[in-house]
Write a structure and sequence with these properties.
Layout lengths: L3 H10 L4 H9 L2 E3 L11 H22 L6 E3 L9 H11 L11 H14 L3 E2 L17 E2 L5 H12 L11 E7 L2 H4 L2 H11 L2 E7 L8 H10 L3 E5 L3 H12 L7 E3 L6 H5 L9 E4 L8 H9 L13 H24 L6 H9 L2 E2 L1 H7 L8 E2 L12 E5 L4 E3 L8 H18 L11
Parallel strand pairs: 1-2, 3-4, 5-6, 5-7, 7-8, 8-9
Antiparallel strand pairs: 9-12, 10-11, 12-13
Helix pairs in contact: 1-4, 3-12, 3-13, 4-5, 13-14
Length: 432
């Protein structure tokens, strides 16, 4: 993998149209950089995802010769989850890239305006700014297959039995990282609390408090909420679960977002954390054919013992598959092996992931069908509740779908507010 220094040197000499320059210098190849975080306080959760992303493209290169006749040059630029380093990585990698994958919501918000100027697709699967679902306003940004507001809605759907009015009079705590990522669901939960009559209490966890949350859990013990929803990441997840066990908070009333459902966070707690749940847009499936393909064709995987069965490693596979599907769609539309960033944007707007296609790709049982469009950059595939059984995560619900009738007005208003605050903001008109 290229180091940040090598990326900087590459950026200094790479000029002109991304696909043309890259094709001329490297043959039939496409550069798909990833702003990774294998170091820092969130490394434990970042590593298995990055391993899955890297292994999927390595498998395609080894088995298929890449995608549509072009090899995939997957490179990482290490950010340590730092917004400042993330912006540096974006600038250093964009010259010969066809996409950017910023990861941190903080980095996403910083590079979002830049992608309009650079005409660079921004792929943020299941993270970033929820209003990016609006493809007319955020024409270069994609957060398929689900947004944070989708996740927040599905959690409420699950705990209410599908009837949010049943939550009236109850108290719901949001234990969240005090970071743009952790604040993402607050507008949605505030709106739902006002409409359905439950009390909503956000409790922030600072970056310096992730491993010592005694003050937050003392407050939770005093408040006696009906549910605690966790928007945690990295060391915060294990810290929160440890405190929940200490305070004997009922695990079946403790639910996390999809970044708080990591096997590595739960393994040290074992049976003590049994019953904890998280929403997930990918379902763990150790028997999925894509895993057999990885084991057959990728000899230098960095995945540790048992990691390929983890939710996060498999999510990395799903994420790279979504990008590969966007590339495939663009290649077919433009009759070219090496697509440009502009062509990839069209591909990402025209993903049609049917059940037949999921099975063909070897992802049976791992993700639900969805499609994107010019206007819809999220696709809203829904997800499943997964439950920790003491040793692994198991699917613990039927397929869930977010309530788009509740989310869509919030997306429209927030997108319009963002465009106005950042005027002049370029938009596109979509048919239909």
């Amino acid at each position: 993998m290229k180091t940040f220094a090598k990326w900087t040197a590459a950026a200094a000499v790479a000029l002109g149209t991304a696909s043309a320059v890259y094709a001329e210098g490297h043959g039939a190849s496409m550069n798909v950089p990833n702003l990774s975080y294998r170091t820092g306080p969130f490394a434990a959760t970042g590593i298995p995802i990055m391993n899955g992303q890297a292994d999927y493209f390595a498998m395609l290169n080894a088995r298929d010769g890449g995608i549509g006749g072009a090899m995939i040059d997957y490179e990482e630029c290490e950010t340590g989850y730092s917004t400042e380093k993330g912006v540096e990585c974006y600038e250093a990698t964009k010259a010969d890239a066809i996409v950017t994958q910023p990861w941190s919501t903080g980095i996403t918000l910083q590079v979002l305006p830049k992608t309009n100027v650079d005409e660079m697709p921004l792929l943020a699967p299941g993270y970033g700014f929820s209003p990016m679902a609006d493809g007319e306003v955020f024409q270069w940004a994609f957060n398929m297959p689900g947004s944070y507001w989708d996740a927040a809605s599905m959690i409420l759907q699950e705990i209410s039995g599908g009837d949010l009015s049943s939550l009236s009079g109850q108290k719901i705590v949001l234990l969240h990282l005090d970071h743009p990522y952790g604040k993402e669901p607050i507008p949605f939960y505030e709106a739902m609390a006002a409409e359905h009559g439950f009390e909503f209490l956000p409790i922030p966890v600072g970056l310096s408090e992730m491993q010592n949350q005694s003050a937050q859990w003392l407050q939770i013990r005093r408040e006696r909420p009906d549910y605690v929803i966790m928007w945690g990441w990295g060391a915060m997840n294990a810290g929160a679960l440890t405190e929940a066990i200490k305070t004997r908070y009922p695990m079946d009333q403790f639910i996390g977002v999809w970044w708080s459902g990591h096997n590595g966070d739960l393994e040290a707690l074992g049976e003590d954390a049994a019953g904890y749940r998280a929403i997930s847009y990918n379902a763990p499936n150790p028997d999925a054919p894509v895993l057999a393909a990885i084991r057959e064709h990728v000899s230098d995987s960095q995945a540790g013992e048992g990691e390929m069965d983890w939710v996060f490693y498999q999510r990395g596979l799903v994420i790279s598959m979504l990008l590969a599907e966007g590339i495939t769609a663009a290649q077919a539309e433009y009759d070219t092996a090496v697509v440009s960033p502009q062509q990839l944007r069209w591909g990402l707007e025209n993903i049609n992931l049917t059940q037949e296609r999921i099975d063909e790709l070897g992802f049976t049982g791992m993700i639900a069908p969805f499609s994107t469009s010019c206007a819809d950059h999220t696709g809203h595939s829904g997800g499943w509740m997964i439950r920790w059984d003491g040793s692994t995560f198991q699917v613990d619900s039927d397929h869930l779908m977010a309530d788009q009738s509740a989310i869509a007005p919030l997306v429209e208003a927030a997108a319009a507010e963002y465009a106005e605050a950042n005027a002049p903001w370029p938009t596109q008109e979509c048919d239909g």
